[in-house]
Amino acid sequence: MLWDLATFWPRAAHPFAPPSYAERVVPDLVRRTRYLAEQGGVLLSGHSHGSALLAATILQLPPETLRRVALLTYGSPLHSIYARLFPAYASDDTLREVGDRVDWRWLNLWRDTDPIGGWIFSPHRLGAQPTVNGPPGGVDRRLRDPRDVTLDESDTVPPEINRHSRYHADDQFNGAVREQVARLDAVYP
Prior knowledge:
single chain
């Protein structure tokens, strides 16, 4: 994680670090997203530090591309780490701008057991009302981890605790993908 942080920021921020990969990756993501958006809807999906790369990408896309983009983040450190360490770059205002730019077609999956990723706007529990009003209240989705606290009668091993990994293996991940694709289809069938 420290390597990700050190190599994400430009050398101007820390001149003795290796070259920033974000200086290449973000423009490549912008170019690729623009190309794909000309073909139809684009779901940008990013785990962990990938969510920071996607946020930087969203902030650089033109409006005609953004109309065809939805965002799915999971295990995201945007609020839990970046907002604290880099408040000038990952402030609440900046994160709301990301949401505004994609017309709030953004879902963020998080777990209490994840030591890196977390909620971005609202730490509400399953079935509870979001702690913020408006579109930001619909971004965060808490995943239960472990999925259950009792053993399956055919097993002798307790359910696995996934923490920062295996988001893609959760049924709610597949549901979030389907939901975001449906949002794009509603805008551009």
